[in-house]
Amino acid sequence: MSAPFEERSGVVPCGTPWGRWYQTLEEVFIEVRVPPGTRAKDVRCSLRSRHISLAVCGQELLQGKLFDSTVTDEGTWTLEDRQMIRIVLMKTNRDAGNCWTSLLENEYAADPWVQDQMQRKLTLERFQRENPGFDFSGAEISGNYSKGGPDFSSL
């Protein structure tokens, strides 16, 4: 079995003061740097459909209304190597046109170039799913790819 599309093609990260976030067609990944030696019992994380909050050792690191809705009971967080928290959110709308432009409403927005690269990647990921026999991981896309690109499903 081959690796998932996002592993072969890389990610388009959006840097933040606390770490970074990136997305695929189905998920949003959040990586938060925490002090080395952090223990799981030091972490307070709440994941709801449109809201997230994360505090470590009583200090709030991330809190607010998400850019779009997520599937509440499929969101997870893990503490990795006692120095990074990885949060995975499952998008409710898993369409290539649903490219989050920011993590939270009005916060942690991708700059225009990063947003463009994210949209290109999601469009290529959509093409990969529609054409499973082809490998689009090294492909470049140009033209009309905003909102997920053209719809060829009816051809």
From TrEMBL:
Q: What is its main location?
A: nucleus
The protein's organism comes out as Toxostoma redivivum (California thrasher)
PANTHER family named among the record's database cross-references: NUCLEAR MOVEMENT PROTEIN NUDC, NUDC DOMAIN-CONTAINING PROTEIN 2
Location in the cell: Chromosome, Centromere, Kinetochore; Cytoplasm, Cytoskeleton, Microtubule organizing center, Centrosome; Cytoplasm, Cytoskeleton, Spindle pole
Q: Which domain of life is it from?
A: Eukaryota
Q: Name one GO cellular component term.
A: cytoplasm
State whether it acts alone or in a complex, and with which partners, per the record: Interacts with LIS1.
What residue stretches are annotated with the CS domain?
A: 14-104
Any Gene Ontology biological process: protein folding
- Give the InterPro entries listed for this entry: CS_dom, HSP20-like_chaperone, NudC_fam, p23_NUDCD2
Described by its record, this protein's role is as follows: May regulate the LIS1/dynein pathway by stabilizing LIS1 with Hsp90 chaperone.
State any single GO MF term: unfolded protein binding
Q: Which protein are we looking at?
A: NudC domain-containing protein 2
**Pfam families in UniProt:** CS
Q: Which UniProt keywords apply?
A: Acetylation, Centromere, Chromosome, Cytoplasm, Cytoskeleton, Kinetochore, Phosphoprotein
